[in-house]
Amino acid sequence: MSMKVNGLTNGVPKIPNTTPNNNSQKTPAADNQNTPAAVYERSSRWRPDTATLNEIKASVNASTERLRELVARLLNQQGQAWSNAFNINMIEIDEATRLEAQSLVADDGFWGVEQTAQRIFDFAYALAGGDPERAELLRGAVERGFANAERIWGGELPEISGRTFTRVMELFDNWMTPAQE
């Protein structure tokens, strides 16, 4: 599943009615000489994009459940040898499980850098309702989240997490930098 940021915005320009209200011979072009083609009315109160937030949550929950089942299956296989449980130094991983886990964290995998970074950014963008004035606040929240994760981890996060953080910050930079025309 891929999501495009442009598809997340809810703001739709309001186009003024160009049809004359009476049956006069005025043409729409004559009415529009001093009327803008489209008017953007910004709400004074931001609204998060709950549909996108719910979609992201459902996607993450489904993949988390898949990963949980993968780990549970692995631990169940190890649990079959309970009598040897206290002597296990390494967990043996079967080839199918290893390949599935590897595909999940691959560059194009669900838990890979690009998809994870995009989900984090999309979640922040949806929380902001697409409002760029909230970008700095949400960027700071993501930075604090990664810092908390590192503190809980007990040191530097794995390399894939660092690359994910860098990619999320690039997405924020792109959002916060006005497009050059």
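the 2nd protein, sequnce then structure:
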Amino acid sequence: MNSVVTNTHGAGHGAPSQFGLINLLKVVAAQLIVLHHLAFYGPMADYVRPVFPDLIGFLGDSARIAVQVFLVIGGFLAAKSLAPAGLPSHPRPLNAIWHRYAKLAPPFMAATLVAAAASALAGRWMIHDSISEPATLAQLAAHAVLMHGVLDYPSLSAGAWYVAIDFQLYAALVLLLWLAGVLAGKHMVRWLMPLLVAVGITLSLLHFNLDADWDIWAPYFFGSYGLGLMAWWASDPKRTPGAITLIMMAALLPALAGLVLEFRSRIALAVVVAGVLFVCGRVKTPSSGNAWSAINKLGKISYAVFLIHFPVCLLVNAAFTRFVAPEPELQMLGMLVAWSASLVAGAAFHHWVEVPLSHAVRFVTQKIDRSDWFKPDSGRPGVVTLR
């Protein structure tokens, strides 16, 4: 889930009409993720399940694959931002990785602290597995550097794993661009990056994604992310039909082989989303009208909703457990309250936390840029020296 313009989170300043479809996909996927966590965590869904078993079963299980939408969109917009023409080279990789971290981590840590406080409060009203143990300084530090999964610290909020994986994938792409630039030298080889990404997709879907032990590392998810990258490059109108065909085949053939080897609904969804982005991702949509305005606004706050919805849902679950009768109808009302409150809290978090933090981080990163900490060696493309 970056900014509408440069990534899939919602820290941007507007939604160009070109990204209306992407915002629509993000909005639908974000709501499914909120509802999935409502169905999977917390006792309200347990009371509602006997009345709506199929609905709660779908939300608690199948709806989680909506995260694939964000992975594919993340790759699509990362390609647009970092390598729109698919050319190898990134002269300032450390700078780009720092910018990504500075965009993701501050609001993530703010939401993590809210989640820790929410668990402490919810623990006074109910006993449930969704309530975290009191956070330790080491645990908070691991979250701050987006390494909580790798360092084997329990997440303080549902979805915290995704932020860490998003950062890993982005950093891996930046380093791959830099390495490809070193290999290519002064020759701008248009086929090198699609080839390297196709290899990455193949390794991911035929090996890493089949082993759950890898699910804290970027290679497990690179198949979906890479499909997004290839969808952007293949939809470039400047490419010849033959080049477009080769890029899409290089993306789809390993994906189809992976599905034949072991069918995974999450990968099938990623293939569908990549196909939609290839066909429609660059198509402009109306920038006016109440419906598109609402979609673009919801798309802009999607990262904030993703970050803050879990503590909100946890508190609503605890309140309805403590103060409301365990009737299915009343508990269903509680789920609707939690869903609505998550959207309101997401809008408030975006306005009062995410945007101010974004401004502060932008000020700091501009100072860092001017200090020339990360300076490319002008003599060799893609080579970086630390000053």
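The radius of gyration is 21 Å. The chain has a mean pLDDT of 90.
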